[in-house]
Amino acid sequence: MRDTPLARIDNLRVSFHTDAGETAAVRDVSFEIAPGETLAIVGESGSGKSVTSLALMRLVGFDGGQITGGHILFDAGQGPVDLGKLTQNQMRGLRGARIGMIFQEPSTALNPVFTIGFQLTEGLRKHGRLSRAAARSRALELLQEVRLSEPARRLAQYPHELSGGMRQRVMIAMALACEPRLLIADEPTTALDVTTQAEILALIDRLRRDHGTAVLFITHDMGVVAQVADRVVVLKEGEKVEEGPVSQVFSAPAHPYTQRLLAAVPRLGDMRGKPGPEPFALDAEEPPRPVPGQGAELMRVEHLTTRFPVTGGLLRRTVGHVHAVEDVSFTINAGQTLALVGESGCGKSTVGRSLLRLVEPQSGRIILDGQDITALPSADLRRARAQMQMIFQDPYGSLNPVLRLAEQVAEPLRNFTSQTKAQRTDRVTALFDRVGLPRSYLDRYPHELSGGQRQRVAIARALALNPKLIVADEAVSALDVSVQAQVLNLLMELQAELGLSYLFISHDMAVVERVSHHVAVMFAGRIVERGPRAAVLENPQHPYTRDLLRAVPVADPAQRRRISDLSFKPIPSPIHPKDHDPGPSLYRSVSPDHVVLTSDCGY
Questions:
Q1: Main EC class of this protein (predicted)?
Q2: Contacts for 469 with CB less than 8 Å, ≥ 6 apart
Q3: Strand (E) positions, 474-601?
Q4: I need a labelling partner for 157 at 20 to 30 A (CA). Which of 234, 284, 385, 474 fits?
């Protein structure tokens, strides 16, 4: 198999023209990939992973880049051709048909003015020569294969009507539509929960086995690499520093950079037997200390229900409701972390937004430090929000692109305190020091920072008013493993030092195990299991919790499991008629503070 590569990259060099001159994003990178093989390219942000894939697709020129050296050879069926010498018109015949690509950011890769159905059938009709009806039928099959709920309804929707995870699944369906010979997957599962991730990996693996498709898998998730890859290429600052079989790279990494990457990977089971969250040991002279928390109750949520109206008909009357959150109850102790986990669309983010009343709950009580948040009028709610802050999943979207970072971190101080400008400046400087950002960054803009640095700015802004509770909504899901470990360490250090409480919303079970004191598992708007971290993750009682844990990829090739063996029940639709009564959430006690849902949740 190694003698007949499907694609071969020889001494690739890609440069970008900047104000400071020419910058080489990829330098002298070489590798090859054979039919039916999965090659993973790993490395941190800025290492050149995505630029390499865009060069292979001849798309790097649209981002201002230029292939300034090397060759890109691809066997399209009639022998190897140098893609660098083809015209863009010739490349359009290969893209989608022979080379498919799953882009990292589906919100920008999908066209906002066309329906999902139009975008999904366009390639099928162009490359597959299918009729309109046959293309639509195939599109429905693809959406079912990527486990998108209500596929017929999705075809008529536009990208903005779908969640990030749903848009990613549409992108994957588009890339797989014409069964390409080479599939380039650029961070394809970053925004997806573990069960959907497992199904997508199984789908890609089936395409590889059944059709001999080669897969170029670009990711920072080392668990996924260990699960799917045959070989690994490690990039650092545009250069290849290591390449080899996945088992060899994981068991005996030769380059110090690869060793650091693997040391920063959270592994499910690492926290077994430990009393509380514990920072990663990243170049630390002293062993990390657990974060015990204070134990006193800070927030109590009772029977929280949040629904959204569904309108229809000529007069746009309410014909039903989306039952996003249904009868949810939990407590968060001072100085401790409650992790809320589950699949996309289960209601995790809606719970977080309901706590801050960014969306209005339909019923229930939210009591923060003895004060009922749900009963507060607008003026009092504004003051109460100073005690609750939120760190969003996308720091670039939550930061203002036209304001300097110092102004954005100082904004809460201007709105909620009477501090002078000098006092605000001192406070912002101290916050930058605390989150590990150089003071020279105070006058920078968000686009001048990396993803991890932007997330640190978001954390600094959340800390500005000394809140008691921080809702972290997928705060580290899009970060590289090493940056992720640094940000998680920062959050735990701040918790130990300031007594912060976190509602940590995540789909990464290994990260949840690392940071949480308690865990609540959500499915279809309800909490199906809740309890201390060790009880829920080491002794799961609900079948959904067990399936979630079973789907977590293990960052060890020796423990690789057959993805095709994993199967999951379909997610029930959250949309119900106006008069639908879902009933209360009923639980049984397993052990102290460990409860399991007994009423029907559809799983």
A1: translocase
A2: 298, 299, 332, 355, 368, 387, 388, 389, 500, 501, 502, 503
A3: 501-506, 518-523, 526-532, 575-577, 587-591, 594-597
A4: 474
Between vectors from CA 369 to CA 368 and to CA 370, what angle results, nearest 5°?
90
**What Å distances lie between residue 150 and 157, 350, 461, 485, CA to CA?**
11, 20, 39, 37
In 105-245, which ranges are continuous DSSP H helix?
Answer: 106-109, 116-127, 132-145, 151-155, 164-176, 194-211, 222-228
Task: Scan for tokens 């075809």, then name that residue.
Answer: 155
Determine the 3-state secondary structure of 28 from DSSP.
Answer: strand
DSSP assignment of 358-373: SS--SEEEEEETTEEG
Give the separation between CA 210 and CA 518, rounded to whole angstroms: 43
Burial of 201 (0-12, 13-18, 19+ CB in 10 A): buried
Picking from 278, 357, 294, 358, the residue whose alpha carbon sits closest to that of residue 500 is: 294
pLDDT at 20: 67
Pairwise CA distance, residues 244 & 43, whole Å: 14
Taking the chain, what is the end-to-end CA distance rounded to the nearest angstrom?
A: 43
Reading the block at residue 249, the tokens are 């790279």
- Is-contact 529 322, C-beta < 8 A? no
Q: Transcribe 45-96 into DSSP letters.
A: TTSSHHHHHHHHTT-GGGGTEEEEEEEEEEE-SSSEEEGGGS-HHHHHHHBT
Nearest to 339 by CA among 510, 515, 494: 515
- Spatial CA neighbour of 35 closest among 70, 88, 80: 80
Check residue 1 and give its pLDDT.
42
Q: In b/e form, how buried is each residue of 315-345, taking b as 16+ CB within 10 angstroms?
A: eeeeebbbbbbbbbbbbbbbbbbbbbbbbbb
Q: H/E element holding 24?
A: strand 21-33
Question: In the beta sheet, which residues pair with residue 219?
Answer: none
**How much is the CA Rg of the chain, to the nearest whole Å?**
25
Distance CA 122, CA 128 (A): 10
pLDDT below 70 — which residues of the chain? 1-3, 18-20, 107, 164-165, 191, 283-287, 478, 561-568, 570
- Domains contained in the chain, CATH given: 7-263 (3.40.50.300), 370-467 (3.40.50.300)
> Residue 333 is inside which H or E element, if any?
strand 317-333
Task: Record the pTM.
Answer: 0.80
Closest CA to 56 of 21, 25, 18, 95: 95
Q: Quick one: tokens of 24?
A: 């080489």
Tens of pLDDT, residue by residue over 371-388, are: 999 999 988 998 888 899
Q: Count Cβ atoms below 10 Å from residue 85 Cβ, excluding itself.
A: 9
